Here is the input.
Amino acid sequence: MNIGITCYPTYGGSGAVATELGIALAERGHEVHFITYRQPFRLPSFLPRIFFHEVDVGRYPLFEFPPYDLALAVRMHEVVRSHHLELLHCHYAIPHATSAWIAREMLREAGEDVHVITTLHGTDITIVGQDPSFYPITKFSIEKSDRITAVSQYLKEETCRAFGCDGPAIDVIHNFIDPDVYNREKYPSLLKKQVGQSKPILMHVSNFRTVKRVRDVVRIFAEVNRELPSVLVMIGDGPDRPAAEEEARMLGVADSVSFLGKLDQIAPLLAAADLFLLPSQSESFGLSALEALASGVPVIGTDAGGLPEVVRDGETGVLCGVGDIPGMAAASLEILQDRKRWSEMSKLASADARERFSRDAIVSKYESLYRTSLPAKTT
Ligand code: GMT
Here is the structure.
């Protein structure tokens, strides 16, 4: 198949999933065209059967807000025609599903067609999509997609609750990991060398947006560190990083916290971690938690949204209420101070991630969704 993929190229789960899906599809012989404003962060510079089409938003002095969604629609329309794409797979509804709808309408005017599949990832439904400025167009664009997928059962139910269930049925296709990449045994422990072999390493990876509650990460760590000297490694960047840094200074733990910024290759770092902290306000799935589990790192997080579908509470991690810092700190200490329990959880985390979320099985689900979505002659 010739497939177009549009996603946010920036640091974040939806871009990571879209890119890794595209790479896996190309490995299976499909031709994959990424259409977005920048090369996606997890896309290496060259891979066979993968093409990147940059969306150029023309600047004009009149535009305080250049219309990216229109430029994207035009680029989608052009790439569909020039590379004979059969489907456009949009990751994150806003504005990608809307641009795809425009591109498809333009094609239909000329007697051509393309199938539009939208994968809902999280805040496109739970926050941004429900903002009154976006709600009607989000609902419209979802309903006009040929097929819709959601990355968790929670997100499917939330979509129906917030937007109604009038559009196409929603298939739940969970996110995935490559078991060869997220493998603890594979990497030398560079991080342990840097931060000290003896202290447990707690880790957090995110885009540091408010929804991630990164100050809670530091607060949980400070409580753990008081009883069990440890280190906290913060990976990623975003609007709340200064607040997290300030929190670390205020709580007197700044010397034990390293902010490493945005990094592409997370697996070697996860391989050195003892616990992963994800105390999010809302999390439709929690790809970073899955990557941690697959690396044998138990997860301490919140029972918000789709996280309970990923983390088996009490078995591969512990989930507490949003903002329950004492609860998350106590659970962290309990696991870190009992190495036998840690070891059992670590093994189970890695096995469970492999059993339920392996790349091959999940990519096959997308492939079969594509096949059943397309008219018989093109499959
Ligand atoms: O919805 C977002 O805020 C963006 C998105 C991203 O690009 O990181 O995150 C969502 O999609 C991820 C991949 O499917 C999920 O793992 C995250 O849980 C989800 N984020 C939220 O729901 C806050």
Summary: The chain has 15 helices and 13 strands. The CA atoms of residues 23 and 50 lie 7 Å apart. The chain has a mean pLDDT of 95.
